[in-house]
Amino acid sequence: MSVYWNSRTKNLKPYIPGEQPGDRRFIKLNTNENPYPPSPEVIKAVQKAAGDRLRLYPDPACTEFREAAAARYGVQPEQVFAGNGSDEVLAFAFGAFFETGLSAEADVLFPDITYSFYPVYAALWGIPFRIIPLDDNFSIRTADYKIPSGGAVFPNPNAPTGKALPLADILPLAEYLEKNGRVFILDEAYAAFGADSAVPYINDHPNLLTVHTLSKSASLAGLRVGFAIGNAELIRGLCSVRDSFNSYTLDRLALAGGAAALSDSAYYDGINRRVTASRERVSGTLRELGFELLPSAANFIFMKHPAVNGAAFFGALRERGILVRHFNKDRIADYLRVTIGTDGEMDAFLSACREITGV
Ligand code: PMP
Q: Looking at ligand 1, which atom is closest to the CA of residue 221?
């Protein structure tokens, strides 16, 4: 810590992303990337954009990208906001919609076990928050969120549990928060792998902001493209925060590649069906081997073995060249989050699991 850091910087507790190893070749099942390549149309679009026009600033309104997202989701371009990964979209949304304040009614609600970036954004903006524990089966109980608050945020499916909620739970919560004048941020990072999206209901709920990413279902974690879909007033609020920070958060390559990805659903439906088929196959085998798994609607599984400590299991897999994610946190310290890789990678993972547990 430097004497030159201000007190705000000294107090930050930044999010720590999963390891991106440089030195050694690992089977990388730790950051929920897609194991299959992006659509060939994306590569063509990025290559085409990598030319003389890089001299020029990109379109600050992200018009072509927003039109592609609007066409893909059946909404208006004014209902789409684009950002540098959904992390940036989430950070702007916290800043745009959640109040700083001292009363309990200003507390933003999210689960105890969820995406660990949420408390980091709240702290960055000075937004008070309250943690709502998942139930004993690691499910979000939406009734617990129907209390006076400053708003709510969680992913569907949740991460790292992978558990999805039906819209029959999500939409009444949106309505409750709407009646209380609060925003509900629904992070749909993993929805393409098995949850129903709430996007078709954004016109019914002007307080519902759905957040999306091309990092997982579109195999583009390296391009950094995320977006939000919601009421046009919410989108204008996000633009206002962005334009007080950086007018050009998406570069020309990301805008072109992102638009191409959103226009090639057929390709992505194909690879994501492969991911979910592998998830089901691997889950079945792991259960036969005595592992306990939560039912996953995402591109990862959350699992533990009754006889193996989570940290030790993580280390044993790492020694065998397999990277997964372990969270040293109450209630989940014995679990591992394992991204679904190719069938070959998952076979290597299963062999390592057999070896480590001796079954
Ligand atoms: N939301 C959730 C629940 C995530 O797990 C992630 C990935 N770490 C993100 C958002 C952010 O994804 P990205 O910034 O790559 O779009």
A: 15
